[in-house]
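Translate sequence into structure tokens.
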Amino acid sequence: MKSRITIVLLLLSIFLFSFQLEKKTYLQVGIVAPIDKDSLVFAAGFKIFGESVGRMISPALPIEKFKQNLELIKKAKGKLYMCNVMFPGEMKIAGPDVVEQDVLAYAEGLFSRAEQAKVSVIVLGSGTARRIPERYDLQKAKADFVQLCKKLAASAGKHHVKIALENLQSQETNFINNVKTAAEIVRAVNHPNFGLNADIFHMRRENESPQSIIDAAEVLIHCEIAEHEARTLPGIKGDDFKPYLWALKEAKYKGPIFIEAGANYTPVQIAESYQFLTKQIEAVYTD
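Result follows.
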């Protein structure tokens, strides 16, 4: 009798393990949300979430505030996987006004705190910080930015943190406005701790083809999404993301996809958004 029970349990374990492996082929869905909404987003289905550097791990935060944040992170139901808005707007990281010593010192403090908070990814969007003067030499801006990012990547590597360079629409900045350009810079930096964030919201705003995701497959480490018209949660307007999700599948992307939309939504809308995006992902990945 005991042997039969053992066999049944073993077979059940194998089945469950196989099921889990199959589910791992889908994308894990996260959301950028204030940490005080952790319980709400966790209940909606999101097991990972993102916050801002400025609120959680910035080296500009007083040490006591940072310690308080560490306690909040430890007690959170979900995992704080990433932080965005890497640099404050007044700290220039591209163009003629970069003070490299200040940028690197800030970044070292940031990565140290990210390591303590066990944050895996820092998204490098920072549209204001990377805006360059009109008619500035674009090639020089790119070349200088690559050299700075090589140093940032080395610093991140010491603290086991990855930087994800984000494409931003031209309404937000005039430097690195599509996935194709961002991927070129990531390749030039050529460091394991410096990768690409393909932001589908910004791609659609710039009319960039899903093919850019496939072409950048080897450097893609992060992905973000929101609806096109008003940067709403997936499901509010009912946008069809499947062409871009299909590109992620073709690129064999295994990382998470994060919803980055506004914050003023009801618990029902947040739960419905998780289900809406998950269903589109499943439709693509099971096709």
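Note: The chain has a mean pLDDT of 93.
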